[in-house]
Amino acid sequence: MGPWGRGLPWALVLLALRGAAGARPSFVLLLADDLGFGDLGSYGHPSSATPSLDRMASRGLRFTDFYSSSPVCSPSRAALLTGRFQMRSGVYPGVFSPDSRGGLPLSEVTIAEVLKAEGYATAMVGKWHLGLGINGSLLPIHQGFDHFLGVPYSHDQHTHYPQFASQEYAGQSWRGPFGDALLEFDGSVGQLLQTLQENGLANTTLVFFTSDNGPSTLRMARGGSSGLLKCGKGTTYEGGMREPAVAYWPGHITPGVTHELASTLDILPTLATLAGAALPKVALDGYDLSPVLFGSGKSPRQTMFFYPPSPDPLHGPFAVRLGKYKAHYFTQGSFHSDTTPDQACHGLTPLTPHLPPLLFDLESDPAENYDLLQSGAGPEVLQVLKEIKLRKVLLEQQMGFGESQIRKGRDPALQPCCVPNCTPKPSCCYCS
């Protein structure tokens, strides 16, 4: 079904066998790598060439307030697949390396496993970044996927730095190498949608697109754009975790724009509902977004909690959003967000506690510039702050931190190698 893996940093593909009228839908989930809130034409970028994604946005439902669960790769992917904050499955602190011993625990229930129980055929194409394991024991085929075509870790191409574009796309955009890679990504999405159309699957398939975390502004013009949002990858500011997102299902989802609050955590419960599947019997952090997708009601998500790349129970979430308000209890820069004019984003900017917290109205101040508590907050704002604090405390009381899979250490023998059984690793793994 199309050239997956060439232009797509990661495409998670979930398909159901077609049946009689009223059969359960198929699903295609597309997750870009390090793509920022401001990188697509449909989100306001003046020079991005993304006609396929923009067409999806114009014919589908475009989200303006959609969040990843983490500002870096491995934990955000773990949360998307499980509907649970990454701390519960131990995917913290940071990300997995090619020689990491750990990975997403096999005991975790993924979207693929939920759908396979209902007879779905499942496949995963592209970047995994959730562990390799001895003899590939932690790869997607052991997490509910029938097929896997891709790489276990970051392969450092396409929109993840450094970018790569094939000969057909190189030099074709106005944005240089990043734009070329993005254009190729978009071209692959277009071919995928065309394949669904040609096979009579377009009207029975929900296609959902988003990104795993914000852009690496360290790379400047080659690192993507968070648009008007503050900072980028690695931070709990808006630019690190608010992502572009589009739900596309012709004949079922009415085209439009929604400002309802939503997250990658909500994808598993939503797909489970649409497939008529039972939810895993574990603590879930996501909600069913069906009312938002089909225009029948508001989002059940009222709150979003912002955890840093290296979370711990002592600090809890660095920030909390309730409705249009966002309170920062801790802030910290990230080297992924270096080179921006804003010093708060930079890697050498230390962990800073805020008591009282910084409080922003994201409707009027999405760039998080003006602290409401510095300008004389009224009773309404102070009441909101009390509610935010209460919700933060309640979450912290029930948030379980699983054993860290990333702290399990490293083993060079686990590193993927193009020269099987050679020694010594990794120096013998050079590919001609």
Give a topology summary:
Layout: E1 10-15, E2 26-32, H1 51-59, E3 61-67, H2 73-82, H3 111-116, E4 121-127, E5 147-151, H4 176-198, E6 205-211, H5 238-241, E7 242-248, E8 256-258, E9 262-263, H6 267-275, H7 290-293, E10 303-306, E11 319-322, E12 325-331, E13 352-361, H8 379-398
Parallel strand pairs: 2-6, 3-8, 3-9, 4-5
Antiparallel strand pairs: 1-2, 1-4, 3-7, 6-7, 10-11, 11-12, 12-13
Short description:
The chain is an alpha/beta fold and 432 residues long.
Descriptive notes:
The chain is of the alpha/beta class and 432 residues long. It has a single domain (10-429), classed as Alkaline Phosphatase, subunit A. The protein is 20% helix and 18% strand. It contains eight helices and 13 strands. It has helices at 51-59, 73-82, 111-116, 176-198, 238-241, 267-275, 290-293, 379-398; strands at residues 10-15, 26-32, 61-67, 121-127, 147-151, 205-211, 242-248, 256-258, 262-263, 303-306, 319-322, 325-331, 352-361. The strands form two sheets. Strands 1, 2, 3, 4, 5, 6, 7, 8 and 9 form a nine-stranded mixed sheet that branches. A four-stranded antiparallel sheet has the order 10-11-12-13, with helices on one face. The longest helix has 23 residues, at 176-198. It starts with 9 loop residues before the first strand and ends in a 34-residue tail after the last helix.
